[in-house]
Each structure stands twice: as C-alpha cells, then as structure tokens.
Amino acid sequence: MKSLFKIFTWKISSVVTSILLLALILLNFYGVYANKFYFLKPANYIFPALAMVHFLYLYVLRFKITENELPDPVMRNLEYVLYAVLIVYFFKIYVSVNVLNSISDYKGYFISDIFEPMATITLVLYCLLSVFTLLSFLQRKYYVGKYNFENYNSNMNIWQ
Question: How far is residue 141's CA from residue 132's CA, in Å, rounded to a whole number?
C-alpha cells in the first residue's frame, strides 16, 4: 500500500481528480448522439453539483493532511455524502457502457464519426474518476487516520 502512495501521492491524486472532474463536467453537457453541447437542459447540471461535493472533499482532505489534523465529524459526513456520489459515478459508467453498446442499434442512421471515440473517452474518464475517488478514501485513512469518535473528547487536549 505504501508503494501505491509513493506513486500516487495525495497531491498528485488530488490534481488528477480535479482534472478528471473538470473534463467530465464539460463532457456532461456534450450529447454524443447529436454531436453538440446542451447547456439549457436542467439534467446536465446534476453532475456539476455533485462534483462540487467532490471538490469540497478534496479541499478538506488537503487541509487535514497539510495541517496534520485528526478527522472530525464534518469530514466523516462529507465522506459519507461522497459515497453516494460514488454510486452516481458507477451509474454514469453504466450509462456510458450502454451508450457505447448502442452503436449497433443505429447502423441505419447517420451517426457522427466522433461518436465512438467520445463515448469511449467518457467511459474511461468515469472509470478513472471512480478509481481515484476510492484511492482518496484510502489516502484519508492512511494520512489523516480512521474515524474514532468514541474517545474523541478524551484524546483532545485543548491546552496544546
């Protein structure tokens, strides 16, 4: 596990996750079937809202690691919300696989030449985002520590 954290440090994984999130926010507005962007569909704004939770978690994780602080209930609750967001990421992987597999259903119709590469790129980015999200959970456990709130008050010394 330590060798994995030497290759993917928390800084590198946070930068890669941020780049993945920004790319997927942009691709979320892109319609692969029509080959155009849809900025006026309200459903396209769900993923960017969920990405804000992920950005907030990355910020809190960075703060806890750099300040050498213990995990707190706010961070735990934010991580629990990110578990639900991770389920949405898995759903987006499922949708991307279905879109990619639907190319055979539309053989008689005109489909852009960029359909298959864009659907593949979206699928790969969602898979990478899920892997890096799971990696951030492991990094939180390794760098910040486990959530142990039973003895939280007795371990805290306010005079230090």
Answer: 14
